[in-house]
Design goal:
The structure is a single chain. This protein has a seven-stranded mixed sheet with strand order 2-1-5-4-3-6-7. Helix 1 packs across helix 2. Helices cover 38% and strands 17% of the residues. By secondary structure, the protein is an alpha/beta fold. It has two domains: 30 residues, no CATH class; 148 residues, Glutaredoxin, CATH 3.40.30.
């Protein structure tokens, strides 16, 4: 009854017949994505985790096999394609990355937390930026279930020591923060 009333009202507003409008109103809404994240208790909450990651080339990998356990500090950078400060931070770090690697070798992974519907934007961003470090898309948005603060507010950077323990964490970005990040990495060498 309510649906029929809405159909008639919408039809009169948009010049459609009740039958045409009813067909639109009664169709189920299509979702752009289906979130398939596991419950947090089913995800390894310790480094290197066990989270599905997708590359810009479309390969699906697991963080447990991608993240190096090589006795070096690891930087996990979480970002979104729509985040201006994320772009600035990634650009600043990419410009200094090669020099930093010569001074203090460490692992760095840029992880997009975009919704699956934005995967195409992730691919474009990675191809256009040509970062000297690997970038992945958190396929099911599961990192938010195991990282401090549920990754609320981006960008966020975590520095893990050689044992995978969080040694440093920062949220947001202002120019110069990348140098503070590198100082924290050097402390772990």
């Amino acid at each position: 009854m309510l649906t029929a009333l809405i159909s008639v009202l919408l039809g009169s507003v948009f010049g459609q017949t009740a039958a045409d409008t009813a067909a639109v109103v009664l169709q189920p809404r299509q979702s752009h994505y289906v979130e398939t994240a596991r419950p947090a208790h089913q995800i390894s909450a310790t480094f290197p985790y066990d989270i599905a990651l997708r590359t810009a080339a479309g390969d699906t990998l697991n963080s447990a096999t991608v993240f190096a356990k090589n006795g070096k500090p690891t930087v996990l950078m979480f970002w979104l394609t729509t985040c201006g400060p994320c772009r600035l931070e990634l650009k600043a770090i990419s410009e200094k990355y090669e020099t930093w690697q010569q001074e203090a070798g460490f692992n760095l992974y840029a992880i997009s937390t975009d919704f699956p519907k934005n995967y195409g934007q992730f691919v474009s961003r990675v191809h256009d930026a040509r970062w000297p470090f690997p970038a992945y898309h958190d396929l099911n948005r599961e990192f938010r279930l195991v990282m401090l603060g549920e990754l609320n507010g981006l960008p966020q950077v975590f520095v893990l020591d050689k044992n995978g323990n969080i040694a440093y964490h920062t949220r947001k970005y202002v120019p110069g923060d990348e140098d503070k990040l590198f100082e924290e990495v050097k402390k772990l060498k």
